[in-house]
C-alpha cells in the first residue's frame, strides 16, 4: 500500500490546530492511514482534572472504530511545530493493538515500525500462554475489523472419540438481499460444552447459530430469532 506521508502529516497538522490544551498549551495532532485507504485523525483533549488528559492517539483510535474499524497501516503524529512527535508509552500500547508490529510511525530520518517503538510488547499471546486456547476469547488482532460482523456457527464434533463443541466464524451475515463475500474467517478451538462455544461466538458476532448433531438450527445470537431459524438455543448441558 502506497503511503502518502506528506498527506498524512498535513492531516495531522490540521487536526493539531483543533487540540484542546488549556493546561499544557502543547497541542498534538495525529493522522492514520487505515488498511482500506481511509484516513482517521485525532487531537489531544485536556481537562481541569489533570490526570484525565486524552492523548491525540486516543481520539484517533476512537475515530478508527467509529468510522468502520480496520487496521492502522501508518501514522503521523505532530507537535505544535508540525514536526514528528513520538507517541507516549501508553499510546504505543494503544497503537500496538490497532496496528500491530508492522504499523509505521513517522519519525526522522525515517519511519519506525511499532516493534522498534515497543519491543517485547505485551499482547494477547502473553495471556493465552497462561489461560490456554480455550480461554482465548479475544479476537485475533488481524480479524479485529470483522468483530461484530459475519455469523458464527457452533456445532458438535468428534475429537479422539469424544463429542466436543466447536465452531467457525463465517464472514457473511446471511441477511437476505445482500451480496456479501463468503468464506471462513476463523475456526474455533474445541470446547467441552456448547455454552463455551457459544460464548466464543458472541465475542465475534451478535449472530450465533447452533447446529446440533441432527443439523437442527437454533439461534444463540443477540436480539430476536431471525426468520428461517426455528427456535432459540437453550443450554441443556
Ligand atoms: N500527548 C499526546 O497527545 N500524545 C502523545 O503521545 C504525547 C503527549 C499530549 C498529552 C498532553 O495533552 C500534552 O501532549 C502534553 O503532555
TrEMBL record:
Q: Which residues form the CMP/dCMP-type deaminase domain?
A: 3-125
Q: What is its EC number?
A: 3.5.4.5
Listed Pfam families: dCMP_cyt_deam_1
Hydrolase among the record's keywords? yes
Q: Which Gene3D superfamilies match?
A: Cytidine Deaminase, domain 2 (3.40.140.10)
Gene Ontology biological-process entries: nucleobase-containing small molecule metabolic process; pyrimidine-containing compound metabolic process
Q: Per UniProt, which keywords does this protein have? A: Hydrolase
Q: Which GO terms describe its molecular function?
A: cytidine deaminase activity; zinc ion binding
Region labeled Disordered — which residues?
Answer: 217-237
Q: Does the entry feature the keyword Hydrolase, yes or no?
A: yes
Database matches in CDD domains: cytidine_deaminase
GO terms under cellular component: cytosol
Family per record: Belongs to the cytidine and deoxycytidylate deaminase family.
Q: What is this protein called?
A: Cytidine deaminase
- State the organism of origin: Actinoplanes aureus
Amino acid at each position: 500500500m502506497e503511503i502518502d506521508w506528506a498527506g498524512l502529516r498535513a492531516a495531522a497538522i490540521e487536526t493539531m490546530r483543533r487540540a484542546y490544551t488549556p493546561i499544557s498549551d502543547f497541542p498534538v495532532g495525529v493522522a492514520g492511514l487505515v488498511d482500506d485507504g481511509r484516513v482517521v485523525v485525532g487531537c489531544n483533549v485536556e481537562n481541569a482534572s489533570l490526570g484525565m488528559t486524552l492523548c491525540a492517539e486516543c481520539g484517533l483510535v476512537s475515530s478508527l472504530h467509529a468510522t468502520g474499524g480496520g487496521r492502522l497501516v501508518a501514522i503521523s503524529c505532530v507537535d505544535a511545530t508540525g514536526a514528528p512527535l513520538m507517541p507516549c508509552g501508553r499510546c504505543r500500547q494503544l497503537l500496538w493493538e490497532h496496528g500491530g508490529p508492522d504499523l509505521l510511525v513517522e519519525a526522522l530520518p525515517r519511519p519506525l515500525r511499532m516493534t522498534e517503538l515497543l519491543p517485547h510488547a505485551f499482547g494477547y499471546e502473553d495471556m493465552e500462554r497462561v489461560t490456554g486456547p480455550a480461554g482465548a476469547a479475544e479476537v485475533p488482532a488481524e480479524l479485529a475489523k470483522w468483530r461484530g460482523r459475519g455469523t458464527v456457527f457452533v456445532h458438535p464434533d468428534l475429537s479422539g472419540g469424544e463429542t466436543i463443541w466447536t465452531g467457525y466464524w463465517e464472514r457473511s451475515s446471511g441477511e437476505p438481499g445482500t451480496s456479501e463475500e463468503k468464506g471462513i474467517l476463523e475456526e474455533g478451538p474445541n470446547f467441552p460444552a456448547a455454552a463455551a462455544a457459544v460464548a466464543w461466538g458472541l465475542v465475534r458476532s451478535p449472530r450465533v447459530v447452533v447446529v446440533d448433531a441432527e443439523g437442527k438450527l437454533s439461534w444463540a445470537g443477540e436480539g430476536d430469532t431471525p426468520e428461517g431459524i426455528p427456535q432459540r438455543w437453550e443450554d441443556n448441558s
